[in-house]
Write a structure and sequence with these properties.
The complex is a heterodimer of chains A (236) and B (412). Chain A is an alpha/beta fold and 236 residues long. Helix content of chain A is 33%, strand content 28%. Chain B has two domains: 2-54 and 273-411, no CATH class; 68-260, no CATH class. The chains are: A alpha/beta (236), B alpha+beta (412). The interface between A and B is medium-sized, with 26 and 23 residues. The complex binds adenosine-5'-diphosphate and magnesium ion.
Chain lengths: 236, 412
């Protein structure tokens, strides 16, 4: 589904050139649960933004469903962001002073095909927040906010969910809750890519990619993937 | 289409979340649009007032008026006290010899007190020839106007304007009574019908005395200040202007037209002059209106820029979940349009209210002022407000649309 070929990314600010990604080769297949790990500043977020059509590459190729992403115009990329992928950020990024329901509805506003609002309630239900749907986003706890963000990412039923340090701002219990939701989604067949630098978070993934200074240093199957039973035990 | 409706939904939602800011912007636009409405309507009313008054004079006469020669400063020189004494009764007689002119009256004016049985009023004496009543659209109410014979005999007779009659005599009959003007007795032989205010001058406060009586008995002069002639063939007005100029130049011994001590104008000339003046005033009003709209527009632009800066995060987020540049542009333009439209509607309502107040005041002071609202003017104001919203909303909206979503989100 996703193929990066020799991808470089550098930021140019006037005279200053920051080389961030240095020859990334990566394939992600449908239904995978992938964790990208690495120290702070190694380029994980940049990679995620590129994968999620939020940023473009400097050189190399990015194919999504066999389409060369660099050749797509702004309208199509916006549509891809809207329907093909769901993004979950570390800092939740909900609209303040706005209800949970409206926050989750947001992507539907930009979906030219779909206007069926029942998807909003379904998405809210899937993260277990029916009882909070009329709350304003700032009245929620951190864990709840991140669940709203996941519901928002799900509302257009995307193929793939990108989560950039989704547990980074959460206490461990809320973190486990979020990861188990992603685990559930993965079991239902969604492709999940999660960025983290905590091994406790990475252990939910079936495959772990390590990145250092913009280069992939290892790409392995996770032998210690957490079992559903253990997960259920943790949630109690 | 669906998109556009959605843009407006998002826009109204965003606006309702920021009531104070929305209110203030709407207020700015409202003031701009209401002043446009008032200015345009007042311009219309003034124009109509002026043309109605011009029309009330009729179109078939020629006015010759004394004027200081251009070489001695023109009307400015006159204002500085140069008195032109060359125009007189002979000129009128020569003008009357023209085949297409049957009637003409000369005039002088003088300010005097007029009194009757203890009532005193300050009035303007209008000393005119007997032909005045046939040429002017003023009409006799009671009694009669004076005759040419009375003028030639220096008869002490007077015709009172309506207000003068009412103030001196109230409901008493004035005809046949003697009033005192300049310590002399004048017999009232007629009173005039209501004429109203023309070009800011109340015609009902005049009293009419034969011109020669006024010259000899009151002012002690021989000259007149204007001669008004009526054409029996209005198509010959340009010919009349040049013939009268020739007569006056010959009588006043003038060879160089630059030294003319008079000015001859047909009604068509006066209309042209008025068109120029009214056109100038209209242009000025339009410029004023444009300025107030631009001020409103700059206000919108300012607030929209502030809005975009303040809502960077929201814009970035919307883009990150799938809003295209076009969608963001539409949303912000929709916000600008909703604001200007609201401002436009409230502004027009406020404008109508103010026009009504102006109408009440103008009518109170005796002007034949119209309470006129032109539908096309209102539609224009509304359309203009939308255009202003679009133009001044475009740059901020463009800035919003071009925001980099990642940078925008990271800011928070
Ligand atoms: N817009 C940008 N301009 C310049 N440098 C940037 C920009 N975005 C990220 N960087 C730099 O790129 C590097 C990688 O950043 P990032 O991808 O956020 O790392 P990570 O998510 O792994 O912590 C950092 O050194 C960061 O400062
Ligand atoms: Mg990061």
């Amino acid at each position: 589904m996703i193929e990066l070929k020799n991808v470089y990314k550098e930021f140019v600010n006037g005279e200053v050139v920051t080389k961030v990604l240095q020859g990334i080769n990566l394939q992600i297949g449908r239904g995978e649960f992938l964790a990208i790990m690495g120290p702070s500043g190694s380029g994980k977020s940049t990679l995620m933004h590129i994968l999620g059509f939020l940023d473009n590459i400097s050189t190399g190729q990015y194919y999504f469903d066999n389409k060369n992403v660099s050749s797509l115009d702004d309208d199509i990329l916006a549509d891809y962001r809207n329907k093909k992928v769901g993004f979950v950020f570390q800092s939740f990024n909900l609209l303040p002073k706005t209800s949970v329901w409206e926050n989750v509805r947001l992507p539907l506003l930009y979906n030219r095909g779909k206007t069926d609002l029942s998807y909003v309630d379904k998405a809210i239900k899937s993260v277990g927040l029916e009882h909070r749907k009329n709350y304003l986003s700032n009245q929620l706890s951190g864990g709840e906010k991140q669940r709203v963000a996941i519901a928002r990412a799900l509302v257009n039923n995307p193929d793939i969910i990108f989560a950039d340090e989704p547990t980074g701002n959460l206490d461990s219990k809320s973190g486990i809750q979020i990861m188990s939701i992603l685990h559930e989604l993965s079991k239902m067949g969604k492709t999940i890519v999660v960025v983290t630098h905590e091994s406790t978070t990475a252990k939910y993934a079936k495959r772990i990619v390590q990145i250092r200074d913009g280069e992939i240093v290892s790409d392995e199957v996770n032998k210690d993937v957490i079992s559903t039973e253990t997960l259920k035990g943790q949630l109690k | 289409m669906n998109n556009i409706i959605t843009s407006f939904k998002i826009a109204t939602n965003a606006l309702s979340k920021n009531r104070m800011r929305t209110f203030l912007t709407v207020l700015g636009v409202m003031i701009g649009i209401s002043s446009v409405t008032v200015i345009v309507s007042a311009g219309d009313s003034i124009e109509k007032l002026v043309y109605d008054q011009m029309a009330s004079f009729g179109s078939d006469f020629i006015q010759a008026e004394v004027r200081a020669p251009k070489s001695s400063g023109g009307s400015l020189g006159q204002a500085q006290g140069i008195v032109i004494t060359t125009m007189n009764e002979n000129d009128r007689q020569d003008i009357l010899d023209l085949p297409y002119i049957d009637k003409a009256y000369s005039s002088v004016t003088a300010q005097e007190l007029v009194s009757w049985s203890g009532n005193i009023k300050k009035t303007l004496i209008y000393g005119v020839s007997a032909d005045f009543i046939d040429i002017d659209s003023s009409e006799i109410d009671q009694g009669r106007f004076f005759t040419e014979e009375e003028d030639n005999n220096l008869s002490r007779v007077v015709v009172l304007g309506k207000d003068v009659k009412e103030e001196l005599f109230g409901s008493n009959d004035a005809i046949g009574q003697n009033v005192k003007v300049n310590k002399q007795n004048y017999t009232v032989i007629g009173t005039m019908k209501d004429r109203g205010t023309i070009f800011f001058f109340n015609m009902d406060e005049l009293i009419y005395i034969p011109i020669q009586t006024t010259q000899k008995m009151i002012l002690g002069i021989n000259h007149v200040i204007s001669i008004t002639s009526q054409l029996n063939d209005s198509s010959r007005d340009q010919e009349a202007v040049s013939d009268i100029q020739k007569i006056l130049r010959a009588n006043h011994n003038i060879t160089n037209p630059d030294r003319d001590d008079f000015e001859v104008m047909s009604m068509a000339d006066a209309q042209d002059l008025m068109n120029t003046v009214v056109g100038g005033v209209t242009l000025l009003l339009i410029a004023l209106a444009a300025v107030s709209l631009v001020v409103g527009g700059v206000g919108i632009m300012n607030i929209m820029y502030a809005t975009v800066a303040e809502r960077t995060f929201e814009i970035g987020l919307r883009k990150s979940i799938g809003a295209s540049k076009k969608a963001i542009l539409q949303q912000f333009l929709a916000e600008a349009i909703v604001i200007t439209l609201l401002g436009g509607i409230y502004g027009i309502l406020l404008g109508i209210f103010m026009i009504y107040i102006v109408y009440l005041i103008a009518t109170y002071y005796g002007f034949a002022w119209d309470f006129s609202l032109s539908l096309s003017g209102l539609v224009l104001a509304l359309g203009f407000s939308i255009v202003v919203g679009l133009i001044f909303g475009l740059y901020p909206a463009k800035r919003a649309a071009d925001l980099d979503p990642i940078a925008a989100i990271r800011k928070e």
